[in-house]
Amino acid sequence: MFNSANELEFLEETTAEISQLSSLALSGDPACSENSSAGSPEKTGYPDSVYILAANIFQGTRLEKSPEKALIKYGNEPLPSSTESEDESFQRLSYELAFSALKYQDILETILIDSYIFPSTTIPDHLNSLIIVMLYDFQDRKFQARLLSGNEESIAEVLEVENLLNSFKTKLAAALARCRIKHDALSIYHILPETVRNQELRASTLPLYAWINTCKISPEEVYYTLKKNGYNKVKSVLHIDNKVFAVDQHCYDVLIFPSHLKSDLLNIDLFKDYKLIFQDKSRSLAVHSVKALLNMDDDILMVNTGSWYTVAHMSVLTNNNTSKIFVCGVQSQAKDPDLKNLFTKMGCKNIEILHETFMKLELKDHRLQKVKVILLLPRCSGLGVSNPVEFILNEHEDTDLLKDFSQGGPSEDKLHVLAQQQYEQLAHAMKFTRAQAIVYCTCSVYPEENEAIVKKALEFQDHEIKVQPYRLSPPVLPLCSLKEIHLSTDKFFRMEPSEITNGCFISVLTRERDPSETVSVKDVLARAAAKGLLEGIELGKSSKREKKKKKQKMSLPKSSIADNSGIQMKIAEFLSRETNVRKPSKPTTNPLVPTIMKNTSARPHERPTNFVRSRPEDRMIPLKPIEIALPPVILPFPSPQGIRSHLPTPHFYYRWVGPKTVLPGYLSTPSILRRGEKPKENLPSSLPRHSRP
């Protein structure tokens, strides 16, 4: 069976060291090393239903090869699954196991061929997917037997495959060792593509993000509760193994926890009672961008929301508004009761579910007449996300993404298809004429899904629609570092995948408001009062007598404007203006003419329409003289000293003379003095006039 004595000797050594196969298994896997460092017990295997569901997921997402390169034939029939597979915890375990099998598909197939399991066995082809996922778990357990619980129901297909793998345990260990030596790798984890390894390394250390449900609890109460449970507030959670948390810099209602604390946090009532909700930060950034664009009563249309927690977060942020949130694309009405129950538990009341897909929504749908902001979260490659399983489960994405993640990225054809779908959705969103802003958000790092889509949509937007066109607006989120400022120089908000966050791209498109739709302050106050937002504040209303006077005033002929009452209004306005501080006007261009104070608002044709109550006609109010020191007038003298010696400092006095319009700089001496005041003899009777050169 073996080609040489050396190979046989190597097999014997491998057999003796089966109990120490940690170096031969996926010991380089960050997840495995993390579990061992945390002191967790050794893996004992999964329930039978997890293997069945993982095999079905692998069957639908495996990498298909050409017939001449295919080592193993897989059937097309899915395995029957139990009702337990619908449980969230079972689904998470199944997706993780299927994703691991996908990453190592080539290596696992090589081990099965090299150990002579194929073609010596007679197991049906439709069980080969089950063999792959159970082999990965078998070597991950260091080829130790699985421990079964007493109350677990066994599945015949799982027992058959398990017995087969146990009978080939020695040969499988030897094949795994040869594979490691062939690739000169410390473990088969190092055989994976570098992009996949980096992604797994980030996933093992990426912090946890959770937003506060302010409908049920305040941030201060959350901090107090966490402190009671032993959590301390810090500025950063990086490289800290203790029980700590920090507040996010971009979103004031988002908390950050170290990744190894998830199991402990899930046992706290804050998470059990929907007061704290785990979610990727990119979704929180998207809803906060929408919040920054909203007015008090603007509605929101959410497209491809994925996780219902994103909808709930948007609802919580608009809880104090009169906004309504429309969610489209819920095709199955059977989910409505479950969704309403979830939103009720979370305290969300302003959500309305639409069963039409976004592309089939009518542009003039009466339900969407008040929608001003559209949040577009299109399906994307998601290559900015470190944990694809969480991304698929939380965002309800297609399981085909597992294949793309396992290969380090999608194919060019797949990327082109996604980009075309994204462009069509963004172009359709721009056709809603009443919408004033669009927030476009992805978790991708590819420009083909981000900048290129937005620029193409702006370039080819329909200008025949009689509304203001869209334009690219700067980010509405705070930029907290020089790197973020540099990445946002072209008005796009970007976050690159790093050890603290997943990748994120956000673009904000806004259109200028139509000038014809400008709303006056009175209309805004009246609308707010009608909605009960100005409770306790009384708005001044014009009485019938004031309306009657206004009507009579409008019916007066034009000739009556220049009567004595109009003159008295001018005087009263002048007096009220004189109490304010005067502002200097621009100097005259001619240096020979003295600079005087001018008040252009006293001209009759520029006076405002609302005056204070006029005084009786028979009363004349004397004006107080004002002394103004003017700079010396420049005359053609031989030296500046000559000018100063020949020109005394002039003094001028003002008065208002009848209805006659007189320039302020050339008023004569006031003829009406205060009672008991003597006239000054040394005052000039008029202003000196100088001829222009």
From TrEMBL:
Basic residues bias (residue ranges)? 542-553
Highest taxon, organism lineage: Eukaryota
Specify the taxonomic lineage.
Answer: Eukaryota, Metazoa, Chordata, Craniata, Vertebrata
Species whose genome carries this gene: Bison bison bison
Domain annotation SAM-dependent MTase RsmB/NOP-type: ranges: 198-512
Protein name, UniProt field: Methyltransferase NSUN7 isoform X2
**Where is the stretch described as Disordered?**
540-562, 580-610, 670-693
Polar residues: bias regions: 586-602
The family this protein is said to belong to: Belongs to the class I-like SAM-binding methyltransferase superfamily. RsmB/NOP family.
Q: Does the keyword Transmembrane helix apply?
A: no
Family matches, as PANTHER family: METHYLTRANSFERASE NSUN7-RELATED
UniProt entry keywords in alphabetical sequence: Methyltransferase, RNA-binding, S-adenosyl-L-methionine, Transferase
Q: Which InterPro entries match?
A: MeTrfase_RsmB-F_NOP2_cat, MeTrfase_RsmB-F_NOP2_dom, NSUN5_7_fdxn-like, NSUN7, SAM-dependent_MTases_sf
Gene3D superfamilies attached to this UniProt entry: Sun protein, domain 3, Vaccinia Virus protein VP39
Indicate whether Cell division appears among the record's keywords: no
GO molecular function (one): methyltransferase activity
> What are its GO biological-process terms?
methylation
Q: Where is the active site?
A: C443 (nucleophile)
